[in-house]
């Protein structure tokens, strides 16, 4: 099976530290070029990471006929515009979450995908990690009974004014940056869309973005409760509760690429630990996307799924 030649839009930290090194270990991916609006930064990243080509503009990268697909880790307000331009250039697109600034943006992106025939996916790497796939299978099997609740806490500390997460015009804030994860997970595991949501949002008085958000998603068959924060001690944990048991994912989102991961399953008085071999979730995500491009199958997280997630994010924002 041929390798998909990726071009990287920008030198974002998630790209240079996580996704590019992961892609370079993939069976179906080749990182062929990187672009930045500062050519010096592009050349520096290319030299550091062993990428053959470096461009001083995103337009130059999209014009390269040898590039099959684009990875878009740009700030949130640039996700949809540059993904549409990539599609128009005939490039497949793996775009970072959240897919855009609003649900209204997603419609034109879907139209661009359908018009050009390229593959476009939202980059939720948890959707391909074995610990999440196993959790989904256990819930589906009925082992813990009927799913009734999900609880999640996800936090880190960041008050850097230069960081895009602290800039409202860039789609900053904890709900957009990490709140999208428990929302995606809840919709996935419950298997339906929530019919009602509520939220409590605390904003940073200097930056104007939400630094701590708690949300409650009301599903027909249960509830999902989460708290995300950009101004708390780093922590992450997810638990799913059913009528007969529960599942806890120890490191749900930043699963380490260099050691095993674990979930804890309890039914009645019985408790077991399931351990998963070392894997890189960004490599799994990239290969899954490339496989969809080469084989013509479905991408792991579709734009329709991304639209659903964006609608829930908006609903939570509008509760205030």
The topology string of helices and strands comes to EHEHEHEHEHEHEHEEEEEEEHH
- Shape descriptor reads globular
Kindly report the CATH topology of the largest domain. Answer: Dihydrodipicolinate Reductase, domain 2
The average pLDDT is 97
Question: What would you report as the Rg, rounded to the nearest angstrom?
Answer: 19 Å
Helix content: 25-40%
> Assembly state here?
single chain
Q: Main sheet?
A: 8 strands, mixed
List keywords for this structure.
single chain, 320 residues, alpha/beta, Rossmann fold, Dihydrodipicolinate Reductase, domain 2, 2 domains, eight-stranded mixed β-sheet, six-stranded parallel β-sheet, 14 strands
Structure description:
By secondary structure, the chain is α/β, with parallel strands linked by helices. It has 2 domains: 4-125 and 284-302, NAD(P)-binding Rossmann-like Domain (Rossmann fold); 130-278, Dihydrodipicolinate Reductase, domain 2 (2-Layer Sandwich), CATH 3.30.360.10. It has helices at residues 13-23, 39-49, 58-62, 79-88, 103-116, 130-141, 174-190, 281-295, 303-317; strands spanning 4-9, 29-35, 53-55, 69-72, 92-96, 120-123, 147-157, 196-203, 210-219, 222-229, 231-242, 245-249, 261-267, 270-276. Strand 9 and strand 10 (222-229) form a beta hairpin. Helix 4 (79-88) packs parallel to helix 5, helix 5 (103-116) packs antiparallel against helix 9 (303-317) and helix 7 (174-190) crosses helix 9. It is globular and about 60 Å long. The model has no long low-confidence stretch (mean pLDDT 97).
């Amino acid at each position: 099976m041929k390798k998909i030649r990726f071009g990287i839009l920008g030198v974002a930290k998630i790209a240079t530290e996580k996704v590019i090194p992961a892609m370079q270990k993939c069976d179906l991916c080749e990182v062929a070029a990187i672009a930045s609006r500062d050519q010096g930064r592009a050349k520096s990243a290319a030299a550091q990471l062993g990428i053959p080509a470096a461009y001083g503009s995103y337009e130059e990268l999209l014009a390269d006929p040898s590039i099959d697909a684009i990875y878009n880790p740009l700030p949130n307000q640039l996700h949809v515009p540059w993904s549409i331009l990539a599609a128009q250039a005939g490039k497949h697109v793996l775009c970072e979450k959240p897919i855009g600034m609003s649900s209204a943006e997603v419609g034109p992106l879907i139209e661009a995908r359908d018009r050009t025939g390229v593959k476009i996916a939202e980059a939720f790497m948890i959707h391909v990690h074995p610990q999440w796939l196993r959790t989904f299978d256990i819930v589906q099997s009925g082992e813990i009974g009927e799913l009734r609740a999900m609880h999640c806490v996800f936090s880190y500390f960041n008050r850097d004014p230069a960081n895009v997460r602290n800039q409202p015009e860039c789609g900053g804030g904890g709900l957009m940056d990490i709140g999208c994860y428990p929302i995606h997970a809840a919709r996935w595991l419950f298997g339906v869309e929530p019919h009602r949501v509520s939220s409590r949002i605390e904003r940073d008085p200097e930056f104007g973005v939400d630094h701590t958000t708690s949300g409650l998603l009301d599903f027909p068959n249960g509830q999902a409760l989460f708290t995300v924060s950009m101004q708390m001690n780093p922590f992450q944990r997810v638990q799913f509760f059913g009528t007969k048991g529960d599942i806890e994912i120890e490191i749900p989102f930043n699963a380490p690429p260099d050691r095993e991961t674990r979930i804890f399953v309890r039914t009645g008085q019985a408790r077991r630990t399931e351990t998963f071999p070392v894997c890189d979730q960004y490599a799994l995500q990239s290969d899954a996307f490339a496989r969809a491009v080469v084989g013509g199958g479905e991408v792991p997280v579709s734009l329709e799924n991304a639209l659903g997630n964006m609608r829930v994010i908006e609903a939570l924002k509008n509760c205030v």
